[in-house]
Amino acid sequence: MASTRIRCFDIISYLKKHGTNTGLYSICKKYDIVIFQKSFNEKHYRLARKLRARCTRIVLDINVNYFEKTGETLQVTEKHIEALHRFLELTDTIFTSSSYLAEIAGKYHPDVHYIPEHVSTSGSYPPRKLNDPVKLVYCGYAIKADSVLLIKDVLRKLAESYNIELMFVCEKDPQLDLPVKASFIKYDHNKLAEILRQGDIKIAPRKLDNSYDLGHSFTKIGYPMSVGLPVVASPVPSYKGSPAMIAESPEDWFDHISFLINTPEEYTKLSGEGILFVKEHYSIDKIGGIYKELFEKVINA
Q1: What does the alpha-carbon distance between residue 59 and residue 48 come to, in Å, rounded to a whole number?
Q2: CB neighbours (10 Å) of residue 256?
Q3: Hey, is 139 helix, strand or coil?
Q4: Residue 100 near residue 237, CB atoms below 8 Å
Q5: Which residues lie below 8 Å from residue 290, measured CB to CB, with a gap of 6+?
Q6: What's the DSSP call for residue 32?
Q7: How confident is the model over 67-126, as pLDDT tens digits?
Q8: What is the largest CA-CA distance in the chain?
Q9: DSSP string covering 160-195
Q10: 201 forms bridges with which residues in the sheet?
Q11: 243 pLDDT above the threshold of 90
Q12: Measured between alpha carbons, how far is 37 from 229 in angstroms, rounded to an integer?
């Protein structure tokens, strides 16, 4: 999973390069800290209990709101919530992927820290200029691509005024019924910057009437933003405060996308601002440094 690569494998590589003895868990080794990355079922509970008996610090790293459930969502069940709260009894520290999740977790545990997910495409790119047709980009899992249908009427209205196309970057073609031309590029993390630079505007519509979707991290818009794509997005808490244009209504969606198409100088300005924002706040050096600082605090607590 992408979250495991970002919050586990990439961080292990960074920490090894910077003098921290770390790696994937082995039953043969003794550890000061063991991190359970979104893992809290019965077998993880039993392991955590054994580790606690050896004075090992237990950290739960989590990027989904399994702490509580509000609204309708199939991604979180009562079984998830029950298992998580049982695991919290053995947990010394919680790491979350968004400040919203940190706030929720803080209601149930005294030691919670927000660690953003780093954006591996963060680097130096020239600001973008619009293509013709203008390509709106969805990047993510195909099973979640139906979130684009939330703005189906907006897309229809935009297609009446502009030459637009919807570009899906997923592990497979989501094959949605849309009122605009759509294309598909298979997701390849090693070529992600090159792929995303083929688009123009990242769109991130999302239902926000439930506790699962509210907890999403910055990452979904961070990757496109990092390579120069201006972003129009629903008001996910982790998106606010960034250069993303937040759309609270269908009218906002139409107006924001139209603004970017009609004012190329503002489009290019926002493209450059996004690149600098991600580079400053979400580079591997920035996020890796946060992990190193927090590990020292956990060990010395």
Answers
A1: 10
A2: 21
A3: strand
A4: yes
A5: 115, 116
A6: S
A7: 999 888 878 899 999 999 999 999 999 999 999 999 999 999 999 999 999 998 866 788
A8: 66
A9: HHS-EEEEEEESS------SSEEEEEE--GGGHHHH
A10: 136
A11: yes
A12: 30
Q: For residues 166 and 136, what is the distance between their CA atoms, to the nearest angstrom?
A: 5
One-letter amino acid identity for 65? N
- Report d(CA 288, CA 209) in Å as an integer: 33
How far is 230 from 274, CA to CA, in rounded Å?
7
Around Cβ 72, how many Cβ atoms within 10 Å? 9
Give which of 7, 18, 19, 104 is closest to 59, Cα–Cα. Answer: 7
Positive or negative torsion for Cα 151, 152, 156, 162 = positive
From the CB of residue 264, how many other CB atoms can be counted at a distance below 10 Å?
12
| In the predicted structure, residue 286 carries a pLDDT above the cut 90 | yes
Least confident range of 36-40, 68-72, 176-180, 239-243: 68-72
What number is the average pLDDT over the span 34-39?
A: 96
Global confidence as pTM: 0.91
- CA dist 233 and 201 (Å) reads 10
Residue matched to tokens 């940190």: 102
What is the 3 state secondary structure string of 96-113? ECCHHHHHHHCCCCCCEE
Q: What is the pLDDT of residues 169-200, one digit of tens each?
A: 999 999 999 999 999 999 998 999 999 999 99
Nearest to 120 by CA among 274, 26, 11: 11
